[in-house]
Amino acid sequence: MNFLSFRGGVHPPHYKEATENLKVEKAKDPSIVAISLQQHIGAPCEALVKVGDKVKVGQKIGEAKAFVSAPIHSSVSGVVKQIKTMKVPIPAGEAQCIVIESDGLNEIHESVIPKGDLESLSGKEILTIIKEAGMVGMGGATFPTHVKLSPPPDAKIDTIILNGAECEPYLTADHRLMLEDPESIIYGLKAMMKVVNVSKAYIGIENNKPDAIESMLKAAQKESTIEVVGLQTKYPQGAEKQLIYACTKREVPSGGLPSAAGVIVNNVATASAISNAIKTGMPLIERICTVTGKGIKEPKNLLIKVGTPTKEIIEQCGGYNGNIGKIIMGGPMMGLAQYTDELQAIKGTSGILVFTPEEAKLPETKACIRCGKCVEICPAFLQPLYISAYSLNDMHDTAEKYHALDCIECGSCSFICPSKRPLLQSIRVSKREIVAKKRKTK
């Protein structure tokens, strides 16, 4: 097998050894969940329940009123105790949450029934199932899946790619899924292929997971339209544009979406969740999460319910190992650092990393030495040092001329910078300012 790749990128240490060989464990059911109405890219949901209502597992409790949004469902059965604004691990930092006290019965809602099989279901019916199940990208981006599978009429989609790269250090949730339930990934992929009527699909997996490649090859051996592709281990191999180039040698134009290259990209965990929604009717209410780092006593891969308090998840891994230096939701490269553990798991909680004070200590920032390393490794072909400099000087219009909006926020530039400049952070500021200005203009 040839291992494919893209131009640029970096090679951070993997740090996956603590959990890559640990089977997924089902987490203990939480006694109380706080389910955010904003846990996806797009508009937040509107609550369908009120305080005092009884709810069941899989019951829709948040309705998506906008196209770019996804419904929210209860992960437990019990009573709604509160609906209030709480801290949530999303960029906004907080959102309206429905607090449910579990009755411990896990009573399944009447709507949770098998939806049929791929042969009998039409593509339109599958798309409705995906939408109503609240599917989002589970690699961390949480973009509503039904939106991805509804490309513009003029887009000629002929390929779907599943991201099994899991290129972020520490995380092993997708790795374990590919080893333990590869059939569900193939089933979900075939469902997506039927929705957009394509006859070619790739599953891209980095070559530091040879067992996952072998597992997926075996699961797909009878599928002539699905190809398992080995990828060189390099970050950010799992980014959409880089994955598309590695698998197809097609390039997404500046400012364009993957559909401009005739491709739709999704995560292997999303495919598995789609399979579950079709076969059982259960919406997206749980996911695999890697809990690791030197600040965790017993690193694990846990199957957690959406809305479970972070503290409870960490306690199920033996608790903290000494003092806490930093908590990150997601991976260390693109995840969000949190200032508290008073948070709840959402659909995109692929990892909970706890670092010791020594690991979390930030290096001293120095002046840029114009070495050009950030330009050399940028997978988006940008010049991060200039975009960052313009951002730091509030020259966001100039930063836009340097294609700041094409930044995929992978953090490779910050990682490689010998002066430890805040490249990614400052570029993010410019991107927000540019987008905000465009909205005001409209």
UniProtKB/TrEMBL annotation:
What does the note accompanying the cofactor annotation read? Binds 2 [4Fe-4S] clusters per subunit.
Q: What subcellular locations does the record give? A: Cell membrane
Q: Which residues bind [4Fe-4S] cluster 1?
A: 368, 371, 374, 417
SUPFAM superfamilies according to UniProt: alpha-helical ferredoxin, Nqo1 FMN-binding domain-like
Q: Where is the 4Fe-4S ferredoxin-type domain?
A: 358-390, 398-427
Q: What does this protein do?
A: Part of a membrane-bound complex that couples electron transfer with translocation of ions across the membrane.
Gene giving rise to this polypeptide: rnfC
Source organism per UniProt: Marinisporobacter balticus
What stretches pass through the bilayer?
none
Q: Which UniProt keyword terms apply here?
A: 4Fe-4S, Cell membrane, Electron transport, Iron, Iron-sulfur, Membrane, Metal-binding, Repeat, Translocase, Transport
Q: List each coiled-coil range.
A: none
Which protein, by its recorded name, is this? Answer: Ion-translocating oxidoreductase complex subunit C
Q: Which GO terms are recorded in the biological process aspect for this UniProt protein?
A: electron transport chain
Q: List the HAMAP family.
A: RsxC_RnfC
Q: What is its EC number?
A: 7.-.-.-
**Cited NCBIfam families:** PRK05035.1, rnfC
Pfam family of this protein, just one? RnfC_N
